[in-house]
Amino acid sequence: MQENQIGWLAALIVGAFAGWIAEQLMKSEQGLFMNIILGVIGAALASALFSVIGVSFGGWFGYLIAGTIGACLLIALSRMFRGRKHS
Predict the structure, then answer these.
(1) N or C: which end of the chain has fewer CB within 10 A?
(2) pTM across the whole model
(3) Which residues contact 39 (CB under 8 A, 6 or more apart)?
(4) Share of the chain above pLDDT 90, in %
(5) Domain limits of the chain?
């Protein structure tokens, strides 16, 4: 059985785009490097969370969806923790 995955270079490109979409949706200004990190880590996080409930994403489009959702979650978590420290 072959899994439908993308390569590391494609993961960086799609991750950057997913991070940018999340940045626009969440109205935050992270920058290109942070967008890449949020998109790639967000895709891994969202894929893991969705696999628990039996949903799987594959290929470029699935990675983009998972990355965007995961990056939005990471931005929201970041805001939540930053808000607590300054209170």
Answers:
(1) N
(2) 0.78
(3) 14, 15, 16, 17, 18, 19, 20, 22, 67, 68, 70, 71
(4) 13
(5) 15-81
